[in-house]
């Protein structure tokens, strides 16, 4: 979602004449002297073309959430009932814990209509090109048996799959720092309701001068205030749930 009202022009001035002209502009929002010979100016746009309605972007996001809930409750939860638990949900992904004899057979027999199975190996029992690229279908990103999943909160999880493969996510943490975090770290933070910190190095520009910034950043944390956390510290309920 873009708010075109927040768009600005940034201009630089090297001479006194340009400085005076930009300072007298009725659209001037802010200026910052960089040094004796250079000044940056933030100039608001004099004309706006409101061609990106925010409410449309909001509706698209809400409809995508509705689609995800519909896929889960009218398909997987309806079929498996209490044998299916939702471990993690994002805008466009689901992690489910399913108790069944043969999940591959179930997926092919009962859920092939809502799944895009084209990314499985061609010799895999689930491979099917029927829904390749079809909008609104779910695709298996891993295509290998998942051995363990640890979900701390949105955008912060770790998945063990295959022989010894691991997929990790931690919002706001650089990829170089993420390589130092193990699956066991995720598990410890979740079960002990603790947090993990790492030194993170960045190169930032301040007034056109590059400098190295060192942060003692919280890389993993079990703290989550957008949902009600149950006594076990693992399961959560949405606020307003009857069981709270």
From TrEMBL:
Native source organism of the sequence: Araneus ventricosus
Matches recorded under PANTHER family: PROTEIN CBG23764 (PTHR31511), RHO TERMINATION FACTOR N-TERMINAL DOMAIN-CONTAINING PROTEIN (PTHR31511:SF12)
Domain of life: Eukaryota
Alphabetical GO biological process terms: DNA biosynthetic process
Matching PROSITE patterns: DNA_POLYMERASE_B
SUPFAM superfamilies named in the record: DNA/RNA polymerases
Record-linked InterPro entries: DNA-dir_DNA_pol_B_CS (IPR017964), DNA/RNA_pol_sf (IPR043502), DNA_pol_palm_dom_sf (IPR023211)
Molecular function in Gene Ontology: nucleic acid binding; nucleotide binding
Protein name as it appears in the record: DNA-directed DNA polymerase
